[in-house]
Amino acid sequence: MTNRKQLDIHFEDLTPQKWCVPLKEGVFATFMAKGSPTVHKVFGDGSLFSPFLFGKYFDPSDAFPLWDFESDILLSNLRSSGQTTVNWFQTDTDFVLKAELPGVEKNNVQVYVENGKVIEISGEWRHKKESKIKDWRSGHWWEHGYGRRLELPENTDGWKMEACVNNDMLLEIRIPKNPNSLDCRITPGSEGAVKES
User: Fold this and answer.
1) CA 9, CA 155: separation in Å to the nearest integer?
2) CA-CA to 33 of 20 to 30 Å: which in 66, 140, 187, 191?
3) Which pLDDT belongs to residue 85?
4) Contacts of 60 (CB under 8 A, 6+ apart)
5) pTM of the shown model
6) Measuring CA to CA, which residue among 152, 163, 179 is closest to residue 122?
7) In contact, 154 and 181? CB cutoff 8 Å
8) pLDDT given at position 133
9) Range 102-122 average pLDDT
10) What pLDDT sits at residue 184?
């Protein structure tokens, strides 16, 4: 039996200085070298939150244009070795992202939409002790949590986005395509003609 939990999508996150400390490649290498098995679950190969998910280093706190790429191509090396737990695709009506969440305690994943242009998926893998910084995302965020920021495709309706977690570990996000937008595709044999759908 599948345990399905609907997530609230937050459209306003007024956290100042969030993601202001970038995760540099050298810092990440040192962090992973000293990391526990939990750190390797959260940021290891194939994880949505790994800076190396897309084949080369990319700070997860920077917005990545995920749907500009096909998952089969971008993740081909990880898929051939059975290391990825991430998939994204589009249907006629939605853009879809599916990813296994880090297996750390009960998942407290949160989904934010920034200005209708960026989706942020984040959560804490370790609770931080009291400090001057109120939000873990404002400092060395990787020491306490995980995050991935993704650019939303232009022809989406982010206000109607849905997110859920199945069995406390499988995240699914569905972003409806905006039916009022023009979907331009060059079809084979159309000799550059633009097709409306």
Assistant:
1) 19
2) 66
3) 79
4) 23, 49, 50, 51, 146, 147, 148, 149
5) 0.80
6) 163
7) yes
8) 57
9) 81
10) 43
